[in-house]
Design a protein that fits this description.
309 residues, mainly alpha, two-stranded antiparallel ribbon, 9 helices, three-stranded antiparallel β-sheet, single chain
């Protein structure tokens, strides 16, 4: 605002000075062409004197302001801020987002700002850190995307796993997916849609295909279970759909079905379910699918949290 006022004042002084000179020239011209007419000469004198007085007032105000503070009369053009308008779709305007910023790494921001946690430096790569403190990147999550505060999915527990500095993101996804319950009860609201519908005679327990803390979909051909003690377990063969599910018209269930339980098989439903519900295996598998917590596109809950895909 100060820049705008200074700019307007300086332009006003310049215009007033120019007008005063023009009026003085006009008065002098009338005097020169008066041909001795006393009334014309008197009018011309008044015009010139008025212009000179006005010019002195303008110059006087400039001198006074310059004496008080030279910055008040320092001519500089006000900069109009650039406004960038991005075209957004309706879906984009509704999508949640996280806010990340640099701050002193010694500060407990979680105790100061709700849902604010330490995050990888890459989340703040476009921001400038100050040199007078030890910078760390912090991110504030949306209110409806809380982290787990107890159990296996707390930030402290996950930070000691393969998630490392991405522990806060993993904790929030775990909370949203399973409510931090390693073996959730059948029919729980957060997993009621992850079951198969092609086999009406099958045990309801055998229709489920997403399990554990991160609700890993073991029917997907790309989602081999990572066993924490070593190796992977391919559970796609347990399902009759050949991997992957197609959402049925009811919008809730999928067209896959587990095979009849065969405990003699090397890979069977019970073995897969037990393996993926083991917290260490579930966390290790989630790490693999999310690139150690950097990409959360395989989980639909990442959208309400605004996490990177």
């Amino acid at each position: 605002l100060t820049d705008y006022i200074t700019t307007v004042y300086n332009f006003a002084v310049s215009i007033a000075g120019i007008l005063a000179v023009v009026v003085i020239m006009y008065g002098g011209l009338r005097w020169a062409t008066s041909a001795g007419n006393e009334q014309t000469i008197s009018t011309a004198k008044e015009t010139i004197i008025s212009a000179i007085v006005g010019l002195l007032l303008v110059l006087g105000s400039y001198v006074i302001l310059n004496f008080i503070n030279p910055e008040l009369v320092n001519l500089k053009y006000a900069k109009v801020p650039k406004i960038y308008i991005e075209e957004e779709t309706e879906a984009e305007t509704e999508e949640a987002s996280i806010t990340c910023f640099w701050a002193d790494g010694k500060t407990d921001f979680h105790g100061t700002y709700a849902n604010t946690y330490i995050a990888p430096d890459s989340m703040c790569q476009d921001q400038v850190s100050e040199s007078w403190f030890e910078p760390s990147c912090y991110c504030t999550f949306p209110e409806d995307c809380p982290v787990a505060t107890t159990g296996d999915c707390t930030i402290a527990n996950l930070k000691a796993t393969c998630f490392g500095e991405n522990a806060a993101f993993a904790s929030a996804i775990c909370k949203a997916e399973s409510n931090n319950i390693a073996s959730a009860p059948i029919g729980a609201s957060y997993k009621s849609s992850d079951y198969c519908s092609d086999d009406p005679n099958a045990d309801i327990a055998m229709k489920l295909f997403s399990f554990g803390l991160f609700q890993i979909n073991i029917a997907d051909k790309d989602n081999n279970i990572v066993v924490s003690t070593g190796g992977e377990l391919d559970c796609e063969s347990v399902y009759n759909n050949g991997g992957g599910q197609k959402l049925l018209p009811d919008g809730k269930t999928y067209n896959c079905a587990p095979i009849v339980r065969d405990n003699s098989a090397a890979v069977n439903y019970d073995k897969c379910k037990a393996a993926i519900e083991t917290p260490a295996n579930n966390i290790a598998t989630a790490c693999k699918l999310s690139s150690n917590g950097k990409k959360w596109g395989d989980w639909s809950t990442h959208e309400k949290c605004g996490f990177p895909e």
